[in-house]
């Protein structure tokens, strides 16, 4: 997101021309790449450098569409599925999942090509080197993800297993469709992708039932942060007042408390646990058992969203 100049992005505050907008930056870049040369030149205004300010799968797909459009056009559905897997954190196809994880873990020690990045410690330099490698080897990676199976196969099996179990009734799912809110209850930890895929809503509360008590973690999915075209989640609320209300019902104990992020975070959470910050795309916060009954916590969320919707 440069402060000025031509911009193709679905991030908040983007300057993408309306005729090229799409749900994903990869989709936007593909539309640009299909535009007439005269339209492209007018938009670019002489700009010759392609910049992406963070490393991820949607960034790779966007760069590929701009710099190697013939490669991207032939694999458009896969690129979009992979970008959606990474940016929206939901299940689309196993190949899309595989490509997203290959991009994310390309330089990790168990990667078949880890040697290409050995000795690169600077994060910005590592991002550049990985993008350069992916752009050069894109056809091989996209057409043969199996060569990189160590980077995704275990997590793929785990997510597929959870999704199958959830669809067979292992998870309790309740949905308030008019509020775009869902509660998913599980007997143990659950992958974020499982929750997003099975919730059927963009506001998701996970209730984890364990022998020592219930753990609560709510999150707004990223779809309500990005600028989208084909669908629009309900607007986000500032849930810090709700966290304060829950804290009145259950004051902090055992080093834990009710906490909430600002709605401007890409994936804001409300949770009972150890107060901490969290890097985008990572789920690291330590949850602790809460003494509040699940129905009381759920009722607080439903009341909050009902009031916000004018109900």
Folded structure, characterized:
With 311 residues, the chain is α+β, with helices and mostly antiparallel strands. The chain folds into two domains: 18-151, no CATH class; 170-308. The chain is built from eleven helices and six strands. The chain has helices spanning 25-34, 37-44, 57-67, 69-73, 76-88, 94-104, 123-143, 153-167, 192-199, 240-249, 294-308; strands at 172-176, 181-186, 203-210, 213-220, 257-260, 269-273. Strands 1-2-3-4-6-5 form a six-stranded mixed sheet, with helices on both faces. Helix 3 (57-67) runs antiparallel to helix 5 (76-88) and helix 5 (76-88) crosses helix 6 (94-104). 35% of the residues are buried. The mean pLDDT is 96.
What structural class should be given to the helix and strand makeup? alpha+beta
Using only C-alpha atoms, the radius of gyration works out to: 21 Å
The SSE order reads: HHHHHHHHEEHEEHEEH
* Coarse shape: globular
- Helical residue percent band: 40-55%
What distance separates the N and C termini?
38 Å
